[in-house]
Specification:
The protein is mainly beta. It has one domain: monomeric porin ompg (Porin, Beta Barrel), CATH 2.40.160.40. The chain is about 5% helix and about 45% strand. It contains 3 helices and 14 strands. It has a 12-stranded antiparallel β-barrel with strand order 1-2-3-4-5-7-8-9-11-12-13-14. Strand 8 and strand 9 form a beta hairpin. The radius of gyration is 19 Å and the shape is globular. The relative contact order is 0.21.
Length: about 290
């Protein structure tokens, strides 16, 4: 099925944890697409073992290491589950598909306070510095909830490469915002080696940005002044490379750079203007 292959290629974008329960952030990460010539299956199972990391732009937060990268997906005639995404294919053509997809918002991964950061699914303070305060006190990022988002995803494939268009809106009532995104990638293969560069942009609404990156009135303090984040564009570029030892075993490398919008960077909750994710290791497709 062309659809399952195209979805597998899009997971290359989910680098080093776009999701916390998947990551999961972002992806997608070490190149879990099928090897050239691999027959399609209803199930796609894979795992990569190596080392990777995703920087965390949130204040007082550690970067997110990744040692194991899992790829779990199932494709039926219409329904599918793909590394945390649950979808229904509304249209499937020779070169394009359009699906209704439910997912968990990936911004929440930066606010996770658990210690389960070493395994991911999905094969990522511009305020007053505490040191300058007369009586410095620990500054802790506020807690944020997961949001369930529902949207439409279109995958278009051709000799020129592959494009992905996405539009998602919060249906859980968490941030009540929306996100629009577009990505372009092209895969090159020579012998046992393949690599795929990707560029893209995502527009996040003011409600989405303000919920995750704003400082709400009841959270404001001297160290964290009140801040309202508006809508903005994030830009990103990445590269995934694979060297195939066999149909099932390969060495995978990936890197992804995301430039955060000025509205996010201007928040007292952020201390970096970007997110850098990378991973390298041995990957096995079952």
């Amino acid at each position: 099925m062309l659809f399952s292959i195209m979805r597998a290629h899009q997971n290359l974008l989910k680098i080093a944890a776009l999701w916390s329960l998947a990551a999961m952030a972002c992806g997608q990460a070490a190149g879990t697409g099928p090897a050239p010539g691999t027959a399609e299956k209803s199930w796609r199972l894979g795992a990569a073992f190596g080392y990777g990391q995703r920087t965390n732009p949130l204040i007082q937060s550690d970067d997110i290491p990744v040692l194991v990268d899992l790829d779990i997906a199932w494709f039926g005639k219409r329904w599918f589950f793909d590394n945390g995404d649950l979808g229904f294919t509304m249209h499937e053509g020779a070169r394009s598909t359009t699906s209704l997809v439910a997912r968990v918002n990936s911004d929440r991964v930066f606010f996770a306070k658990t210690n389960t950061r070493y395994v991911q699914l999905g094969y990522a303070a511009n305020g007053v510095p505490p040191a300058q305060l007369i009586n410095p006190a620990p500054v802790e990022p506020p807690d944020r909830d997961y949001a369930i988002e529902l949207g439409v995803e279109s995958l278009i494939d051709g000799d020129w490469g592959a494009a992905t268009l996405r539009a998602f809106h919060d249906v859980s009532g968490t941030h009540r915002g929306y996100e629009l995104a577009a990505y372009y990638s092209r895969r090159f293969t020579t012998g046992r080696f393949s690599f795929e560069p990707t560029v893209g942009a995502s527009y996040k609404s003011d409600r989405l940005n303000d919920y995750y990156w704003g400082v709400h009135p009841d959270e404001a303090s001297i160290a964290l002044p009140e801040y309202h984040a508006g809508a903005g564009l994030n830009f990103e570029g990445g590269l995934v490379a694979n060297y195939y030892f066999s149909r099932n075993l390969r060495f995978a490398m990936s890197v992804n750079y995301e430039r955060l919008s000025d509205e996010i960077v201007g928040s007292p909750l952020t201390e970096e203007n970007h997110v850098l994710a990378y991973f390298s290791g041995l990957a096995w497709t079952f």
